Amino acid sequence: MRLGREMDHGISTHGWSRRAESRPGGRSGNESTAPTVVVRARHATRRVMREGLREFGRRLIGNDPDASPLMRSIGATLLAANLVFNHRGAPAAWLWAVLVAAYAGWLVFAVVESRYPRMATLALTWCALSSAAVVGAAPDISAFIMLCAAASVLAQQFRSATRIILLGFAAQVAVLIAGCAAAGKSLGDLLTYVGVLVILLLLGLYRRQHRLRVRQTQLLLEQTRRAQDEQARAAALDERARIARELHDVLAHSLGALGMQLEVAELLLDERGDIPGALAHVRRSHRLARDGLIEARGAVAALRGDMPPLPDAVRELVESYRRDHRMTVELRCDGPARPVDSGAAVSLLRTLREALTNAAKHAPGRPVRVALEFAADEVRLSVRNAFAEQTNREPLPGGGYGLTGMRERIALAGGTLSSGAADGEWVVTAEVPIE
């Protein structure tokens, strides 16, 4: 048993000795592991860098304009890592200086692109030409990677004219050919370099056109949005003006009639002491105030399209004047009724109200004739009232906008208004086109 254990120990020791002797210089396991870790880390760094450059190139020629600033920064970081880690041996001092100068051009471009686009374009052109000059002399593809990145971005510059981009590309190819010829590169390598650059040029020009289309579309959408905002603002102002105009006329009529009733009530009390008669006029004033509030609400509803047909609205208005002003009003409707735009209908109703109010104030007690006529392409409203008898009493002032207000109101509806004396009567005629 003891012999077996010694043999096992000897075999184990011999095996360990042979493994130790197989290592260079007879170093221990911990001493030989460190270089292996460094090599693996170097390979992992190169692999991550290659994946990053591949993703950077995909985003660089993609169609997302908003990714450009981020891609510039990522590109600067990856190109710097490429210069540091992706060399086969130490390059010559002059080659290293050119590569660093080219990278400096990219860095300047990434920093100042948004604020100084011309300076950024010049810096990027310097980066491309410097990289192209040393592609043939470089021991690896570091310079060519930098050239591809710069050439691709230069082809996408939508601020530059297409001919400027093509001239810059021709200069890059010329410098690349000269550098490869001086370094003794084969024709196959040169054609490969030029072919890759041509592909990048075409992709860059395609993305440039896409960015131009996106930019133009955004500008067009912005202009359309502003135009829609202006139209909405104008429509809101127009609606406010119409509502203000309607409320003004309704309140002017109501307050004018209310003032007349209160004035009569005051005269009855002062001159005759007629309390029942004055009380009747006060009650009528209360009814006028209530009706005025209802009319104001109805005017707003009419402007929003919620109103009865025009003949019914005219009959209701005429009936209210017969009741409130004790006027003799004759109404005639001719022709089949047709739908009328709410704005035009409101304008005609306000014109009728103004004409009836003027007749009640300036020719009280005189008969009034109202005619509503529907023609093929228009609707006509006419109001006729006989002149007042000659008295010493001065007429009460008119309310609302008067004739000027009526003309403006009908003109907004696309119609015309005429007024004047004819055959001993005062005639107001409004004509509004209908579809």
Automatic annotation (TrEMBL):
Coiled coil: none annotated. The chain crosses the membrane at residues 93-112, 132-155, 164-184, 190-206. The keyword Ribosomal protein does not apply. Keywords: ATP-binding, Kinase, Membrane, Nucleotide-binding, Phosphoprotein, Transferase, Transmembrane, Transmembrane helix, Two-component regulatory system. CDD domains: HATPase_UhpB-NarQ-NarX-like (cd16917). One of its GO terms (molecular function) is ATP binding. One of its GO terms (cellular component) is membrane. Residues 345-424 form the Histidine kinase/HSP90-like ATPase domain. Residues 1-35 are annotated as: Disordered. It catalyses: ATP + protein L-histidine = ADP + protein N-phospho-L-histidine. InterPro entries: HATPase_C_sf, HATPase_dom, Sensor_HK_TwoCompSys, Sig_transdc_His_kin_sub3_dim/P. SUPFAM superfamilies: ATPase domain of HSP90 chaperone/DNA topoisomerase II/histidine kinase. Residues 1-11 have a biased composition (Basic and acidic residues). Residues 239-304 form the Signal transduction histidine kinase subgroup 3 dimerisation and phosphoacceptor domain. Its EC number is 2.7.13.3. Pfam families: HATPase_c, HisKA_3. This is histidine kinase.
